Amino acid sequence: MTAGSGSGSNAAPTIAPNLEPNSDRPKIERLLIVRLSAMGDVIHTLPAAQALRAAFPQAMIGWLIEERWAELLCVPGTPGRGPRSAQRPLVDWVHTVNLREWRKSLLDIHTMQQIARLWNDVRSARYDVAVDLQGAIRSAVLARWSGAGVVFGASESRESPAGLWYTRRAIARGVHVVEQNFSVAEAVAQRTLVMPRPELPRDCAAEKRIEERLAGTEVEKFAILNPGAGWGAKRWPAERYGHVARALAECGVGAILNYGPGEETLAREAEEASRGAARAMKTTISELIVLTRRAVLFIGGDTGPMHLAAALEVPVVAIFGPTDPARNGPYRTRSIVLRNPASETTHARRAQADEGMLEIGVDAVVNAAHELLKDGAK
User: Fold this and answer.
1) For 225, which DSSP code?
2) What mean pLDDT do residues 31-46 have?
3) Do the beta carbons of residue 170 and residue 11 sit within 8 Å?
4) Architecture of domain 204-377
5) Using omega within 30 degrees of 0 as the cis cutoff, is the peptide bond preceding 38 cis?
6) Which of 10, 80, 123, 338 has the most crowded CB, counting CB atoms within 10 A?
């Protein structure tokens, strides 16, 4: 059981396009970031994107992202392009794709029209540089098809063939994935950059909705407990979250069980085990951002909501099984990572529970929560 933390790192120099006269630094006027999904991975990309924004303050920056994760960049209903604001603080242009749905009806005329509309949208931006921070074949192809003259990507991409579509390759340095993304940004900028804090949209309508929902709970000080995760091996038993909620209630901390699509059963099991100490709450991404900003603690596994909590500097008790917390743990926030040495590091999407993770007991999680809450009260 270890405390998690992280810091930025420098990337190897790389050749960059459009050098200014008498300068070894690139001049980029239009830059496209490609990171399609998923929630945690997009959040891990935000520091790199913000560093590029600082390095090229006058540049028009766009982002190509899956539609279901666009709320991490832009409040619903806000125009996807135009002057930046609190509702769209980072990028000038948000381009959304819906690859999952498009694959189901690729030859449908409506799908083809959506793809054509997107691609006209992307190419009309006339990007100088595209940066693939996903490292998948599909993201590399999309970056190349954007029409950008230069396409950056990591020299050791997640899917090796992705490198075939890059014109510039950067050595991704660092242990944590945030550091690796950041080092690619430094390669694009050809300079050492300062690791920024992620900036997420502020949704006034979502804030009002969460305020109303919390008013009905009589909960003022609360922790978010997240029993879900991408696959079974990353999930700590749901009923144990209920037991943790009961222990937190004894010290005056309420518990809200966050859950997403397909996680209703997990939330119900945890809620029943809590004996009234926890309340399940399904939220949109914008609402989850608001809710997390108000939380005093987050408890959960390696999943998007945990990385959101870390990005918002909420203390985290992270319960890890098969994934490596050195690479994927809570980054740059007060945290305690619980992981049993018996857990084997693998990204295989196994449905069955991780045996090592099952050895992490309720008492260990509660003690970690108390330690973080105590430190935060100082």
Assistant:
1) E
2) 98
3) yes
4) 3-Layer(aba) Sandwich (3.40)
5) yes
6) 338
Is the model's pTM score more than 0.90? yes
Which residues lie closer than 8 Å to 76 by C-beta, 6 or more apart?
203, 284, 286
CATH number of 30-189: 3.40.50.2000
Going by C-beta distance under 8 Å and a sequence separation of 6 or more, which residues neighbour residue 359?
Answer: 340, 342
Pairwise CA distance, residues 249 & 294, whole Å: 17
66 CB neighbour count, 10 Å cutoff: 17
Reported as type and span, the H/E element at residue 138 is helix 137-145
Give the span between the Cα atoms of 362 and 352, in whole angstroms.
20
DSSP string, 40-54: HHHHHHHHHHHHHHH
- Where do the structural domains in the chain lie, given as residue ranges? 30-189, 204-377
Q: What is the distance between the terminal CA atoms of the chain, rounded to a whole angstrom? A: 23
| Alpha-carbon span 83 to 85, nearest angstrom | 7
Q: Is the pLDDT of residue 67 over 50?
A: yes
Please compute the mean of the pLDDT values over residues 153-162 and round it to a whole number: 95
On the question of a common fold for 30-189 and 204-377, the answer reads yes
